Amino acid sequence: MRWKWLFVFYWKRLLKSKLYVGASILFFVLLLVRFILFFSDDMNAGMEYSGDLPSEVFMLVQIVSLFYIVWFYFLYSNELRYGVSSWFADGYRILLEKMSALLAVHALCQGIMLMMSYGVFSLVYLFVGVEPSDLYWSLLRFLAVYQFGPLVLTVLYGVIIALLLETKKVSFFAMLLVWILTGPMTTELFIDLSQTVHARDWTSLLFIGKHAIQQAYDSYIGFEVDRGGEWKWAAWFLSLVGLALLSSIRFTQTRKERNAVLKALLIFPFLIVLTACHSLQTNTKAFTRADQTTELEEYRRMPQTIKADLRYRIQSYDISLHGSRAVVRVALSQLDTNRPTFQLYHLYPLHSIEADHQPVTFTRNGDLVTVRLPKRTSTLTFSYEIVDTALIPYTNGRIVLLADRAWYPKRRASHMYQAYEYRVAGTRAWDGAFTDQFVPNETYTFTLNVDGDVLFCNVPKRGTGYRGKAQAVTLIKGQGHQLVDQGYEITYPADWPHMAERAPTVIRQLKKTFHHVQQIASTAVSSLPNKIVFSSSGLSSFMAHDHLVYNTNFFSIGTYHMERDYYEKMLRLSVPPKGSRIMYNEWISLATRWLMQKQGLSVIDWSSKSEWFESQPSSVKKQIEAIYQAFQPLDVDQKQQCLRTWYANMDDGWTWDRILEMMQEVNGVGGRH
């Protein structure tokens, strides 16, 4: 009964507090301001990035949490100042009841704020046209972890500082320090440190927020919500409750009370370690800077030239995916070696390889697996685990297995990802690409049995599974939507709005641009694939005969064809590299400008070169600049002829002087007409 009256008492105090209520109102005022700034940004005109809107709560939580900490500190320290609890025989029990009642009242208020925030975000999503899906449920879970959770803890910060320092002046410094070190913006404030912390390092437990606060949503994977974040909050909560109890021991009045508190505290380390371990085991790597940096660094260190034996032919794949366990049966049509090499993602634990149902030994060198066969065989069975990594995230049962990733054994002699170095303005820079950006032309028969709901698969569905011929397989289990327009099957992320209205314009532009590309170069595929997967972040882009995966980067799907990046990407997706890297890139650079001119776009920077230009010797730079000067005054048809001749003849013996001569010849012929 007394706890009930304490709850009512603190509820009334809270509602009458100008500081607490003002901070709560400030939260929504700032949220409204952030919405206005977001919608006024031209880059967000298409709202492809509405999924990242909830990331605004990190800054807002950081701001208002200071006001909450101050209010709870003053409220509790003023009560402790007069030592009212010591006037009663059960004064220590009253002290604990006050703490729990205050925590309950604050949690109730934050629960109301959580639902209000969820309502605001949901209305915004509905307003911009985000279709109903389980995205809305994961939005609530995201806000619960990153808004409700950190704000609930503020009451414990204030109470602990009051218990330890009471009304001492140093308490103000303590509140400021706690506010900085425990806020969700900590990873951004100390970015140099957070960039080195992996998802499953114990150091990650020191951060209550995300490692990269700018990105809240990943295409098809969803919001960064998993059991790891929830277990981490539980570990923080238990740690703070335990610290509050430890800080309150000096207010006990009897030895019995002190012993009871000490006995209760004995169980807290066990619970804290248990929840912390669960957090580290279930944390996702999908949104963590350090995990991706480390993974790419591994590829930089891997030797690019590796002895591989590809004297075999694959006839078919039988792939079974149940949960995280993958079993792939590879049927061979030809085998001329006892040491066949396969490409398989090196971060996937490979449990066993069997030949004719008998285990065989194998060795791994990066993504390359060499099987040691005692005798020739017609089938190999690979058993391995699909795990969460930076390049292929696997979170909450959602996964995007792209055809350019080695998520099943492939007949390749290179790693899945290749890193290369170049120089920009005299500084060292790194870039990389997946080696299957241009998927080989050979096709195989694929049979897939997958549990759970599959959003996309380029192999046709047959009954409960998937079966058909393809160059490679893309399989997506995640949040997203699909539609059919002009005979094209379009898959897009769950946070993309109004795609039914925008798809016709996008398809027409893709078809037109692809047709123009075919006028200047031989493309890897003969026509635009009728299955298209769009994304706004996280995925690579590639084009196979039967499907296209296209990442719009930082552009709206409705307006990206007005930008240079769109035309450059279409060229890189469809035109295989030839000749030297610098020459191919300069061809891409000039072909991009020709495509933009073909579309009638007026703003074209003819002076810009490729990113490889700065790494060239001065003599080569002068030759390239002369080519740009000769190319710009040509008319559209002359440019087309130059680009077509350049690409057709581009090889290791094709020189810059020869290209310049060719342009001058074309210009002379055009001038005589």
Automatic annotation (TrEMBL):
The organism's place on the tree of life at top rank: Bacteria
Membrane-traversing stretches: 20-37, 57-76, 101-128, 148-165, 172-191, 233-252, 264-281
Keywords per UniProt: Membrane, Transmembrane, Transmembrane helix
Annotated protein name in UniProt: Uncharacterized protein
Organism per entry: Geobacillus kaustophilus (strain HTA426)
